[in-house]
Amino acid sequence: MATAFSENRMNASVPQWQIRLEAPGDGVEALNADSFGPGRFAKSAYRLREGVLPIAALSFVAVDVDANGRDVLRGSVRFWPISVGGYEELLLGPLAVQSDQRGCGIGIALMQAGIAAAQQGPWRGILLIGDEPYYTKVGFARLPPGRVKFPGPVDQNRILGLSLKAGELLNLSGQARRGQIDEPVCADGAGVG
Ligand SMILES: CC(C)(COP(=O)(O)OP(=O)(O)OC[C@H]1O[C@@H](n2cnc3c(N)ncnc32)[C@H](O)[C@@H]1OP(=O)(O)O)[C@@H](O)C(=O)NCCC(=O)NCCS
After folding, report:
1. What is the pLDDT of residue 13?
2. How many whole angstroms from 108 Cα to the centroid of ligand 1?
3. pLDDT for position 165
4. 84 backbone dihedrals φ, ψ, rounded to 5°
């Protein structure tokens, strides 16, 4: 399913990417490894992903098409089910764009596709840990310090939230926990539900 296109695909001087749902074999893990390195597994946000699969209906990729008609991965965004204060919410990330493709709008387009799809679901809001100046471009705002507790050290200034329900203020509060367990592994994950 293509949800967004870049400029005219006939114009060879313009990046020719499109946004669609992630499919097996797209190479997202390799992109995340290149973008974040092995240190990503030590981050607090990963405690909320241990043994949990990303939500397939909210996992989007940006792809280009090579001369053989094969998709080439340009960027990816995933969302994970978490609970905060007992409510089902979403955690955005990882968001990554190939280093030679940055600054073309891919990251914003990926998030917009994910947010639009998430608005159709049961979640009240989306949380992430990231750079406020970037994520404000799609509507995220910093949460009051101490409002949401993560399983591990987090810079409070980087905890951002976005309300998914029109006219409803984001009112997340409490301990962030894993929303479910899909793969019971011996790991260092956060509590569940
Ligand atoms: C962050 C990232 C996803 C942005 O993707 P992108 O496709 O280059 O971003 P876009 O083209 O959609 O947006 C570019 C705009 O965002 C700004 N921007 C990008 N990263 C930013 C950041 N960390 N802080 C503030 N602004 C940022 C750019 O300056 C540009 O602004 P402009 O439109 O006013 O010129 C990409 O740089 C990346 O993959 N980085 C490595 C992985 C990473 O850090 N992911 C985010 C984890 S929190």
Report:
1. 47
2. 8
3. 83
4. -130, 120
